Amino acid sequence: MLAAGLGEHGLSMADYELLVPLSAAPDGCLRAKELAAHVCWEKSRLSKQLARMAARGLVDRVPAEDDARGIVVSLTDAGRAVLRRAAPEHVELVRELFIDPMTDAESAAIRSLAAKVKVAGEHRSASGG
Question: Which of 37, 79, 108, 127 could join 58 via S-S bond, C-beta 3.0 to 4.6 A?
Fold first, then answer.
């Protein structure tokens, strides 16, 4: 259902997953390695998806100026435009399907779990894990 809504705008869930962090990044650009870490994807999956998105004009990929092995991914004007059209409907559908049906107790439980996950992640990062 979520994918169908994005599909009406010519986007897949994978496209959307990558366009959102790019749209939030300074200048709409992230190193591919940072983007992969942000969405928790393997390098090969990211590379294949970015190739498909670049072919459709949603993103550009260029070598990093400071590291010939690195790639910088940038959101194109076309990518930003399609995201701008698709995001409000997608957010509304997520709200309708997941947020609105939640009871106060369920919402509190999810916030509590998210806080625990955040603390565990921060602890892991601080310990170098």
Answer: 79
| CB-based burial, 80-92: b 16+ in 10 Å, e otherwise | eebbeebbeebee
Alpha helices per DSSP H over 25-76: 32-39, 43-55
Distance CA 41, CA 106 (A): 29
Provide the b/e sequence for 58-72 (b: ≥16 CB within 10 Å).
bbbeeeeeeeeeebb
| Residue 44 CA, distance from chain mean position | 16
DSSP state of 40: T
pTM recorded for the entire structure: 0.81
At position 22, the amino acid (one-letter code) is L
Task: Answer whether residue 2 shows pLDDT above 90.
Answer: no
